[in-house]
Structure formats: C-alpha cells, structure tokens
Write a structure and sequence with these properties.
The protein is built from 11 helices and 10 strands. The chain is of the alpha/beta class. The structure holds adenosine-5'-triphosphate and magnesium ion.
Length: 404
C-alpha cells in the first residue's frame, strides 16, 4: 500500500465519527477552560488542562497530546511563543494547534496561523470547536500513519543498505581474489613457456654437444680405419674404439629419451623404473652416491604405473644434482603406522635452500603432480651457513599417500 493510500484509508475510516484523542487545553480563563474541557470529555476525548504557556509546555513534554487548544493571551509565555516552541521542536512539531483568541483582526489571525493550524475566535462556539478538533484529529491520524509508514520505509532502506554494503564488500573481496588468481596463472603460464623453451634448448644442446660430437668422432675414426684397411693394416684397436663410441651414443640417446618420456618402463613397475632412473643419474654423476631403499612401492600401487610419482622422484634427483652440491642422495619408501599410508622420501645432504628462490617451476609442479595422484608433497630444507660448519643441511622431499 502506498503512503498516499494509507493516509486516505485512515481519513475514510475516521470520517463518520472521530476516534477520541488526547487533547491539551491551555487557557488562563478558568471558566472557559472548564467549559471546553467538560465538553470535550463528554465527546470522549481525554483532556489535560494548563492555565499558562509554561504549564502547557510541561504537559507537552511529559505526555505529548494528539491536539492542542491554546489561548493567545496567557500570563508569562503567551500562545504565540508557546506555539513557536512546540513547532520548533522536531519531536512535537507534528502536533496540530488550534489557537483561541478574543482578537479576530486579520493581522492577529495571520500571526496566530504562523505556528498554529487553526484559529478560533471567542466567544467559542462549541459545535464549531468540535468540528475543528475532529478535522484536526483526522488529519493528525493520517499524518501519523504516513509518518509511521515513512519510518518503516526508512528502516527497510537502512537494513537493505547495510546488506548491500556487506555484499558489495564480499564482491570486492571476490574480485580481488580472482584478480590475484588470474595474475598467478599468468605468471605461471609465462614460466611454463620459458621452462619449455629452456628444456628444448637443453635437449638440443645435449644432442649437439654429446651425441653430435660422439657421432663426428665415430665418423672420423671410421674414415681413419678405412684408410688403414686400404693399407692392409690391422684395425682391431680402431674398431674397438668405434664400438665404444657407438655405445656412448646409444647410452646418451637412452638417457635423453628417458628424460623425455619413460617409455618401456611401464612393464618394469614403478620400483624398477625408479631404480633404472637412479642408475642413469649415477652414470652421468659418478661422484654422487645415490642409494635406493624401496620395498613397498609395487605392493602399494599394484599394477599401476604412476608417472606422477616417477616424475617427482626425477625432479627431486635433478634438483639435488643441479642445485644442492650433494654427495649423497637417498630414495626410500616406508609404510606409515597401521594402514595410515605410504611415504616416499628423496633426501640429499646438499646445501639446502630457502623457499622462493629461483624462478623454476619444478617444486610447484611436484606438488601438483602429488595431488593429481592423490598424495601430498611436502618439502623440508635446511640451508647451510658459513658460520656454523657443523650444521646439518640438506633437503627432503616427502610424498605421502593416505588410503581413502
Ligand atoms: N635439493 C635442493 N637443494 C638445494 N636447492 C634446491 C633444491 N631443490 C630446489 N632448490 C632451489 O629451489 C629453486 C626452485 O627449484 P625448482 O625445481 O622449482 O626450479 P629449478 O630447478 O630452478 O628449475 P626447473 O623449473 O627446471 O625445475 C631452485 O632454483 C634452487 O635454488
Ligand atoms: Mg628443478
């Protein structure tokens, strides 16, 4: 229902007979005061009386009436001043005032109506007074209804504003989170592209420097051997050297293809595949001792080839050899207490590191891969410091698989 409708229904409801209200009469002529009071009491209104402006103000403050009848001439605070004070207080400004005066001149009436809603001249005609009181009460009720509806509306708007502000804040947080995620994804994509290019470069270099050089040497050896053959010289030593060079080439190609994709290892099972990889790493890094203590992998992942775990071990070994200056690396597995799962560990005795150094993606991808395989990858590292030479440093990568 609109405010206008509410006000209208109120007026229509009250028109035949006005619901009684609280009336305050301020009049210093006691006889007239009593007459009006009795009349209005008879009409059903509850009436308060005051014989001065000051007393009337107290009544308004203590028990605000629905309507005020007020004489103009009173001792102390007169009717004009009383009305001015009532109307200038926002708490009482809405109370309608009917001014009663013996003076009926135009200027008096105009001055009275500056703060009052109605002006009645003495001698008071009680029927006219009743009509004006009723009409003012109807108006007051309608205005009260409008004010109440306004108040309700304001409350609703305030509540909604608060809700809106809250959801705005939530939305802003969400937008910020998304922006952060998008920026992280962009950074990662850039790193992936760079790493892929680096990887291709490294492979090209391996092929060119290792395989290419070996092939060239083998070709030169072959040419020399043919020349010696033409002179009928024994070429057993040269043939032996060529065979060794071909073996080296084959071994390098095997290493490169394994690092690209561990083809053929699926048939071996995870344990043997890791063992194979370790042997290849040892071939290329003969000074580092890499130990494997694997006993449960194949039982824990029966018949399953987990390329992710294979890659995590590969990345951990590569990191230990590339960054750690380790002398010893241990790859092990252990069953966690009473069916709590399996832990795979790659531990090195290298220099350790602080997280956040370097701009590679190996560690990040390791964690992602562990999650893909239903595990959790945690990395512990302790950096060695020059001042504490006895300090144990190194890095441990733990991958935990919990059943269920
Ligand atoms: N075992 C380790 N010992 C010492 N430092 C390590 C070890 N593992 C990682 N780091 C440090 O953490 C950094 C990040 O490693 P991460 O594997 O993410 O990247 P990367 O090896 O530099 O590059 P890539 O993306 O090729 O793996 C490395 O640059 C290195 O400084
Ligand atoms: Mg790495």
């Amino acid at each position: 229902m609109s405010l206008h409708n509410i006000a209208e229904s109120f007026v229509t409801e009250l028109r035949p007979g006005v619901e009684p209200g609280r009336v305050l009469i301020a009049e210093d002529t006691e006889l007239l005061l009593e007459r009006i009071a009795q009349f209005l009491c008879f009409e059903g209104h509850s009436v308060q009386t005051a014989i001065s402006g000051g007393e009337a103000l107290e009544c308004v403050e203590n028990c605000p009436p629905d309507i005020i009848l007020c004489d103009v001439l009173m001792p102390g605070i007169d009717g004009y001043e009383f009305s001015r004070r009532v109307k200038s207080d926002p708490a009482t400004a809405h109370i309608p005032i009917i001014m009663i005066s013996a003076r009926g001149q135009r200027e008096e009436v105009v001055r009275g109506l500056e703060f009052a809603e109605e002006y009645v001249t003495k001698p008071v005609d009680l029927r006219e007074l009743k009509a004006r009181v009723d009409s003012m009460l109807r108006l007051k009720r309608a205005q009260d209804a409008v004010r109440a509806a306004n108040q309700k509306l304001e409350d609703t708007v305030r509540r909604r504003t608060v809700r809106l502000r809250l959801s705005n804040r939530r939305l802003a947080r969400e937008v910020r989170r998304r922006e952060e995620t998008e920026s992280a994804v962009r950074t990662l994509t850039r790193r992936i592209i760079t790493v892929r290019e680096d990887e291709r470069g490294a492979l090209a270099m391996d092929m060119h420097d290792d395989v290419g050089q070996c092939l060239l040497a083998a070709k030169l050896d072959l040419q020399a051997t043919f020349a010696r053959l033409a002179q009928d010289v024994d070429v057993t030593t040269e043939a032996d050297r060529i065979l060794k060079r071909v073996d080296t080439i084959a071994s390098r190609i095997r290493q490169i293809s394994h690092s690209l994709s561990p083809i053929g290892l699926r048939n071996l099972g995870l344990q043997d595949a890791i063992q194979n990889m370790v042997e290849m790493f040892m071939e290329s890094h003969p000074v580092v001792k890499i130990e494997t203590r694997l006993a449960h992998l194949d039982d824990y992942f029966p018949g399953a080839w987990d390329v992710n775990l294979y890659r995590i071990v590969q990345e951990s070994l590569a990191n230990a050899l590339k960054h750690a200056r380790a002398t010893r690396i241990i790859v092990s597995d252990e069953l966690l207490a009473a069916g709590a799962g399996l832990r795979v560990c790659i531990r090195d005795d290298g220099c350790g590191f602080e997280f956040g150094q370097g701009d590679g993606i190996g560690l990040f991808v390791m964690k992602e891969r562990a999650q893909l395989s239903g595990g959790v990858c945690t990395i512990y590292s302790r950096k060695s410091s020059a001042s504490e030479t006895d300090e144990v440093s190194g890095t441990e990568v733990q991958i935990d698989f919990n059943p269920g």
